[in-house]
Amino acid sequence: MTIRVASKKINFLILSFFLYVSPALAISPGEAFKDDALEERARSLSVELRCMVCQNQSIDDSDAPLAADLRNLIRAQIQSGKTDAEILDFIEDRYGEFALLKPRFDIKNAPLWGLPFLLVLAGFFLMRSFFRNAPKN
Amino acid sequence: MIAETGHFAMILAFCVALLQSTLPLYGARRNHQGFVLMAVPAAKLQFILLLWAFAVLTVKFVQSDFSLWLVTANSHADKPFIYRLTGVWGNHEGSMLLWILMLAAYGAGIAQFSKSMPDTLKARVLAVQGMIGVAFLAFSLFTSNPFARLVSPPFEGNGLNPILQDPALAVHPPLLYAGYVGFSLAFSFSVAALMSGKVSPDWAKWVRPWTLLAWLSLTLGIAVGSFWAYYELGWGGFWFWDPVENASFMPWLAGTALLHSALVTARRNTLHSWTMLLAILTFGLCIAGTFLVRSGVLTSVHAFATDPTRGVFILMILGVLVGGALLLFAMRSAGLSSADKNVPFQPVSREGALILNNVFLASATATVFLGTIYPLVIDAFGLGKISVGAPYYNAVFVPLITPLLMLMPFGPLSGWGQSEVLPVFKKLAMAFLLAVLSALTVFIVSAGHQGGAALGVGLSLWLMLGALADLAKKIRFNSVPLARLPKNISKLPLQQWGSVLAHGGLGVMILGIVGTTAWRSEVVQAVMPGAVMEISGYEVTFDGESAVSGENFTAEQGEFSVRRGGVDVTVLKPEKRFYTVERQSTTEAAILKNLAGHLYIVIADETITDGTASRVVRIWYHPLVAFIWIGGLIMALGGVAALTRREVKSFSNDSV
Q: How far away is chain B from the Cα of A27, in angstroms, using its nearest Cα?
């Protein structure tokens, strides 16, 4: 059933793909902050947020009007003195966790963040058993 | 009528595949020589039939025969010749036929070229290839028939997605499929060995060349795809961690691990079960990738449309083929591992390094897999919707793979069986010193702001110089007089260049990735003719714009003269195209390509400010970016060099 639900979403997304993806051009003139440090913050936040009407793009890469709105929103928030974490919280409240390209570090996502490193450890462990029988020189 | 012969050839190929997948197995089991020998002509016949089917479809596309549904849906008579040709695989059904054709080609390749292989093993391998053929031919015939007719053909077709109307379409999918499908042979070899319940010491030596061929095709395919995205999508990104890119990256990682473990198996006659498991999983990931692209469960820029029934069908193929193979593996592998000669080796040895490589690459593969399916799993359990995008992979993949890159140069320099750390490190001392120095330089020059870039530059140099150290050892750089070196280099067997080029190429690629990621600069401006923009030492003047038209599009073309240090360099002409049939726009970047960096210009919409129209122009400078693809090419060349190793030959005359 996941498949069917997804396919409806896909039809919509395919449509939006043709509307928005092809020229992926990101920020427009006049959008940027004059202050380099603020601009750098705005850009690094943009990279972490998903363009909701695009396929798999951050709002930093996307030319969609909605992405531009979000970029302006972020800049307004930075202007008003909010921290990066507060801004991400704000976006998540408004659009859901789906908007974050980097999933939260919480219990639900523990396997996502933990498994890769556990696997390496498990690999080392298996490897050790391989060498245990090997005679020392 | 001709189209029907194509369709008929596919059905015949399906029947041949059915026979090929059953009778030789029976023959191998009952020692019936006739059925065993049948596998070879069956594999060749299947290939010839599919070649006919593919040729027919190609002719229909070139002729623009709109009585075929597929041609109508994906082509147009006004499309330039090359895109009518390559449009054959610019759609789901046609690309599936190409996939199957390549599968049959690999089968025919084994039938033709593996003369030294025992007949029963060959029969079993070809039978398994036949099973894969049956599955995918059924998929094609029952859900994705490329030869379906229209009752009343239209006068004109719907055209092809303009993004696909690019020369890269000629090579990207075929290379990628040659990679995916090529791993089917590693799979078939594994299943064949598991079926027979025994494995000969030469097994890995037969598997390795085909795996190499698949690996180098996949490497090139991914590199071309990345370059295509870079110039076509309009801002110079080269890798997006898009689910479909991941779908090609997973088999690449697993296949790379497979190449290295097959090396241990071939050389030391051990690790058989792991190499087989890896072979099964690698091809499993290839099918899973096909599933992801074509089923519509994932959102991606590549999604080939999206028919759930097709998705279910591919999932069934995946379940039966890979599930069956894994079951067989579970039942039989214990018996096989007794074939492992228990050659003792120390943790610090070539084997140790290769196994370590497998630990990291297998974990990396699993990570990409996890990131790709985790949102689906979370969604399926009703835990909400999450996105796993580039920031996640950068956060997890980079720390995961960095230790592997740090250890990489040690591998080819360490000896089989056991090795001392110190002598190996001595050979790498100079490389280490230079890499650390360059990393420190970057760190200090950037006043500590670019730690990531410093690490990247250090790793890149470490790999490139490490590869040179590998070469230095192979040509005995330190122990022969300088005058003899040219002779030593020219006499070095080609296969010895494999690891040098593949490992060094990765270093070159990392240099490109770091360059464009860390030092990219960007200018976005609304300009009127005469405006001058400055970026990274270039002076770019907007000279104006004009309307141009191509065979099937109209375009606004900007003209930019580029100067550097007061000297004219070139004129760049980016376009904003409108494809009239498809009614879609594309951005055609104009790029000044140098090894030092690419100057990348695109034009966007017109904006009206204070009553005057101006053109939005975006210019990027991507330092060192070309090295990404040059590195990929060098890696693939390493694969070619390694391929020259004779199929079955004693490995003992290697220099160690």
A: 7
